[in-house]
């Protein structure tokens, strides 16, 4: 007579049949190396051009600071895989096993869950080996996980189930002792899928998934399990009311599972994680399965037949992840430790530089006005003296030459005062005064005698009209020079803005290229 095969037996048998052939990802790994080489070369070769800006200016210093950050990242890229060796070591250590991370907050029942699943493997004749992390080492132990109403998991621990499956029971990520923190994180990174335990007393606290953000963004499948899915009921025994623990009804379990599913989908969407990773939640009660002696009806009523089906469904995607894990680990490193770190360092600096540049541009008009006023004030102050010194010869050309010289002398001093951040070029002797040709020195004369014998006598030389014409010409010449100064300053700033935008775009391109490689890694057929 043929016996029915339970979902538990089918799950264990199919896990035993897993084959761990690795995908051929050599060409993708080579493409990742090329991507990294191109990024490193781009960072090493970058130099902001700060022509027209003095080195002490805020913008020049900010540009130099960005270049320094780029070159620091370029050096860090030179040995890209060093930080991956420890993660790869763990992956190799459990190379022929699917690693499922069991995650949950306090009172989710992680240890009890793992112990119970381990017991079912033992019941099916499979070998079970426990281990924990101690002082940065993996230590095998014969003891099962400690269970209790309080938080008992103070270290990372795991259990090897048969030859093909490992459950990793994590403590709260913030409660790991320092000497175990790094190895704990490496175990988490090495996991191929995630079982998220959430207690039925407050199921689906989706903020817990924030601690799994990195792993979920790495495209690892997620199975929510509602634990402690039992409740007290009152019953009458021998005329007295007693409270006894029993399984929650199928209807109540279905409502909680649907709620967890909905809120988990919303949370993943908010995190930018594809909802395809999320598997339908299942509800279980370890306590009730134990009370019933793990009999087939007791297992079914406690939700474990559905759980084993769900575990088999998550094991498939987890196995697929494992087969491409070597490429995934390299991809994660380049995304998180190289590109994301680079963007986090450089993009705020670029934004700050663009803001500084815009603020500086907005000040130029006011600086230009101050420059005009300062130069004109200096030149017009000596204008009467210049006119007096040339009056006897009535030398308008000499006056023009002297006024031009006064402008050329005042110009660099005033530029240093009001445009000190800029390297402004101005050649002496090129200043041109556009003087009214009719303006010149005038006779100062008096009239003598009466109306019939009136005589006109020249008693001096005047320059009222010439002074007015020179004043207008000086203002016109200085405005022109100041416009040229402002134009050079704007050109220097705009050049920096353009370079900052180009650098931003240059750093965006590798993100798109890496995304294309990610698609290749996750969609190619073995």
From TrEMBL:
Pfam assignment, any one: Dynamin_N
Domain of life: Bacteria
InterPro entries recorded: Dynamin_N (IPR045063), P-loop_NTPase (IPR027417)
Database matches in SUPFAM superfamilies: P-loop containing nucleoside triphosphate hydrolases (SSF52540)
Segments forming domain Dynamin N-terminal: 162-222
Name of this protein: 50S ribosome-binding GTPase
Native organism: Paraburkholderia eburnea
């Amino acid at each position: 007579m043929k016996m029915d095969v339970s979902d538990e037996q089918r799950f264990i048998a199919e896990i035993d049949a897993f084959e761990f052939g690795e995908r051929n990802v050599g060409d993708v790994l080579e493409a990742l190396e090329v991507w990294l080489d191109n990024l490193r070369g781009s960072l090493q070769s970058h130099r902001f051009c700060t022509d027209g800006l003095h080195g002490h200016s805020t913008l020049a210093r900010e540009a130099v600071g960005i270049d320094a950050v780029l070159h620091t990242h370029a050096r860090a890229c030179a040995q890209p895989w060093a930080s991956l060796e420890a993660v790869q070591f763990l992956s190799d250590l459990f190379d022929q096993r699917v690693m499922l991370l069991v995650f949950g907050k306090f009172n989710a029942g992680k240890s009890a869950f793992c112990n119970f699943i381990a017991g079912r493997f033992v019941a099916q004749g499979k070998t079970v080996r426990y281990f924990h992390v101690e002082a940065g080492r993996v230590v095998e132990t014969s003891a099962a996980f400690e269970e209790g109403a309080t938080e008992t998991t103070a270290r990372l621990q795991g259990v090897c189930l048969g030859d093909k499956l490992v459950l990793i029971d994590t403590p709260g990520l913030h409660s790991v002792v320092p000497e175990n923190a790094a190895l704990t994180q490496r175990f988490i990174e090495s996991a191929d899928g995630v079982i998220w335990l959430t207690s039925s007393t407050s199921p689906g606290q989706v903020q817990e998934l924030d601690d799994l953000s990195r792993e979920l963004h790495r495209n690892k499948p997620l199975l929510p399990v509602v634990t402690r899915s039992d409740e007290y009921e009152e019953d009458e025994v021998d005329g007295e009311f007693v409270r006894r623990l029993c399984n929650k009804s199928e209807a109540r379990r279905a409502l909680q599972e649907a709620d967890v599913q909905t809120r988990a989908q919303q949370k993943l969407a908010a995190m930018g994680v594809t909802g395809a990773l999320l598997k339908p939640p299942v509800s279980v009660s370890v306590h009730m399965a134990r009370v019933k002696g793990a009999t087939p009806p007791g297992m079914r009523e406690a939700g474990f037949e559905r759980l084993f089906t769900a575990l088999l469904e998550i094991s498939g995607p987890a196995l697929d992840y494992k087969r491409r894990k070597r490429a995934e680990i390299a991809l994660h490193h380049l995304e998180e430790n190289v590109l994301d770190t680079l963007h986090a360092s450089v993009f705020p600096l670029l934004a700050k530089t663009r803001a500084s540049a815009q603020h500086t541009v907005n000040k130029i008009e006011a600086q230009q006005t101050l420059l005009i006023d300062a130069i004109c004030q200096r030149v017009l102050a000596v204008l009467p003296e210049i006119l007096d010194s040339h009056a006897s010869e009535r030398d308008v050309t000499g006056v023009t030459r002297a006024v031009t010289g006064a402008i050329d002398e005042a110009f660099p001093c005033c530029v240093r005062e009001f445009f000190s951040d800029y390297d402004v070029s101005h050649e002496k002797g090129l200043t041109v005064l556009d003087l009214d040709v009719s303006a010149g020195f005038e006779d100062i004369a008096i009239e003598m005698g009466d109306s019939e014998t009136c005589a006109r006598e020249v008693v001096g030389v005047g320059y009222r009209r010439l002074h007015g014409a020179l004043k207008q010409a000086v203002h016109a010449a200085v405005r022109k020079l100041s416009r040229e100064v402002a134009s050079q300053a704007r050109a220097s700033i705009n050049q920096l803005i353009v370079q900052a935008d180009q650098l931003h775009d240059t750093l965006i391109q590798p993100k798109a290229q890496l995304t294309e490689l990610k698609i290749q890694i996750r969609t190619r057929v073995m």
